[in-house]
Amino acid sequence: MGLDPSTVEWKSKEHRLAYDWRTLATYALGVGAKRDELPFLYENAPGGIKVLPSFAVVPAHEAVLECLIHTGGDLSMVVHGGQVVKAHKPIAAQGTLETSASIRAIYDLKKFAQVVVDSRTTQAGELVFETTWSIIFRGAGGFSGPRPPADPGPAIPKDRAPTFRREETTTPEQALLYRISGDVNPLHADPAFAASVGFEQGPILHGLATFGFLTRAVVLGPCGGDPSKLRKIAAQFRKPVWPGETLVTSGWDLGGGKYVLSTEVQERNEAVLANTYAEISI
């Protein structure tokens, strides 16, 4: 069965994630948190453990996966195209999150197809996270479907240096650690599987792990370590990252709490995230 465009607007059931500090710390370690970032890793940190806003993708994973399965597309051929996270309020240090998702659109990219999925996560009846996922099904295009709308995003200023810059080297085990948070696609763990779907160099890092590194850079930079200040963050994935490569994230302050961002792999001098921006409470 191939990708079915008639599944647009289909909604998943509600998925529940019971979590505690271990869940939060495991996620933070998976996106590169170091021991000097103890508030994101230690349950007895003053004020309690802090939560990176990009953690929003973790409770959404099962609901989004249910939507992707329902499209009928070949999940062995998917790569992440883009991600948006909106954080409405901080979550508790432990508890249960309820998430449902829906298929917003399926677009024809000629060789590829793009499936857009939205999710909503609540806690105790209150909205805490919204996410939008752009998932690319390689080889599934050409079904005479609609093209996606233009989404250029804010432009990087060419006349000035970035407001902040953060350089971090991922570990060779980064994808193996990140996958513990729920994304167990063998593309990120199994060399033979990676080669079979076109990645001869080996398993790639999850796009959402790169997205998490980006989020940490914003939280530790312009947010001053306070994750509650980050209201929205968005990125499109342009190139794969291999575990062990160095990510360089730069950000330009556009005023009014808006930042345009860029993430490159230092070893290849190549941008891996595009149309990337954040909105911060000021």
Q: Nutshell version of this structure?
A:
By secondary structure, the protein is of the alpha+beta class. The protein has helices spanning 21-30, 57-70, 174-178, 191-196, 207-220, and strands at 15-19, 78-87, 95-109, 112-123, 126-138, 164-169, 230-237, 246-255, 258-265, 270-280.
Report on this structure.
The chain is of the alpha+beta class and 282 residues long. It has a single domain (5-280), classed as Hotdog Thioesterase (Thiol Ester Dehydrase, Chain A, Roll), CATH 3.10.129.10. Helix content is 17%, strand content 35%. The chain has 5 helices and 10 strands, in the order E-H-H-E-E-E-E-E-H-H-H-E-E-E-E. It has a 10-stranded antiparallel sheet with strand order 1-3-4-5-2-7-10-9-8-6. Strand 3 (95-109) and strand 4 (112-123) form a beta hairpin. The longest helix has 14 residues, at 57-70. The relative contact order is 0.16. The mean pLDDT is 95.
